[in-house]
Amino acid sequence: MTLSLIFGTLGFLMASIAVIANDSAQTLGTFIASNKESKWHWQWLTMATVMVATLTYGYMSGDIAHGRLDSIPQPVVFEWYHLAATALLLALTRYGVPVSTTILTLSVFSSGFILEKILIKSAMGYALAAVAAYALWNILSRFLNEKEPVAEENKSKWRIAQWVATCFLWHQWLAHDIANVAVFLPRGTDLPLWMFVSFMAILVAGLAHLFYNRGGRIQEIVLSKSGTRFMRSATIIDFVYALILWYFKEYNNIPMSTTWVFVGLLCGRELAVYRYFNLRGEIKIVFPMLLADFLKMMVGLALSILLVWIIS
To answer: Would you say 123 and 260 are in contact if contact means Cβ atoms under 8 Å apart?
Structure first.
């Protein structure tokens, strides 16, 4: 077994674990937080079905990465730094740091020009999500107090809406971030069926572990925000998040950080909620919390740039 094969195989396995434990936990976090009464295996089965359908559609179409790797060349051989990026990502995930899997993983495969485009698109995603969430929740707060219990006759409707919104979000997220693992696999029609099936099996197993552990360490980012444990809030957050990801998926095929979009969305929402309800006494808690989330993102960015500089 050559060093290239060892680096590629270990990098693929670590990227698979990190993608499920880091980014997908953020995507499914509000769903997990607001569905504590439903059994975890039903949640897992639903999202696993969406995952298999999305990946199978991509495979049948000739590209499981949905075009996100078009601008990133496939390496002739895998080097130590391809493995180092995923190992670092896995270590940061272990400590609950919401770093960008896309930036940290794909930066070592990309040219400086493509990395710059990834960063610009991610920054646009963060800004758009923050502004859109701030504006939307300023309006919603006038008509709806998300912490008020849902009327008994509307609970089933909101429950259905939440599951639909989460499935839509999960599909959009997969179209973006599955590229972070697929970068270690053969591209397009060169991907053999046995490898694709093995790839899906690993991700489905990792998803089961995620639901069994109720989101893991990254889930703390979600639980620290106001109202995310409530079904109605989770539904609205997931739907807005999915629409933003859909917009950027159609915008162009350059990869972007869905983590930055997620943190921007929660940031804008949190500021709007606290501002509208005049929670002045608690604003001293909100700003340090939002700043901590932003700084954790910057840690991942700084480490990505440092890795690229070392490689250069």
So the answer is: yes
Report the chain's C-alpha Rg in angstroms. 19
Alpha helices in the chain (DSSP H): 3-18, 24-33, 40-61, 80-94, 101-106, 112-143, 155-177, 179-182, 193-212, 219-223, 231-251, 258-276, 283-311
Query: What gap in Å lies between CA 219 and CA 222, rounded to an integer?
Result: 5
Q: How far is CA 104 from the centre of its chain?
A: 13
Q: Which of 14, 85, 15, 23 has the alpha carbon at shortest distance from 216?
A: 23
Contact status, residue 122 vs residue 51, Cβ threshold 8 Å: no
Global confidence as pTM = 0.82
Token look-up 């409707």 returns 157
Where b means 16+ CB within 10 Å and e means fewer, 11-33 reads: bbebbbbbbbbbbbbbbbbbbbb
Task: Give me the tens of pLDDT residue by residue for the chain, a chain 312 residues long.
Answer: 588 888 888 888 888 887 777 666 667 777 777 777 778 888 889 999 999 999 999 999 888 988 888 888 888 888 888 888 888 777 776 666 666 778 778 878 876 667 788 888 988 998 999 899 888 888 877 777 666 666 667 777 888 888 898 899 999 988 888 888 888 888 877 888 999 999 899 989 888 888 887 765 544 555 555 444 567 777 888 888 899 999 988 888 888 888 888 888 888 887 777 765 555 555 566 666 667 767 777 777 777 777 777 776
Burial code of 157-189, b = ≥16 C-beta within 10 A, e = fewer? ebbebbbebbbbbbbbbbbbbbbbbbbbbebee
Please report the sign of the dihedral spanned by the C-alpha atoms of residue 22, residue 204, residue 211, residue 68: positive
CA dihedral defined by 55, 59, 62, 65, rounded to 10 degrees? 30
Query: Residues 146, 233: contact at Cβ < 8 Å?
Result: yes
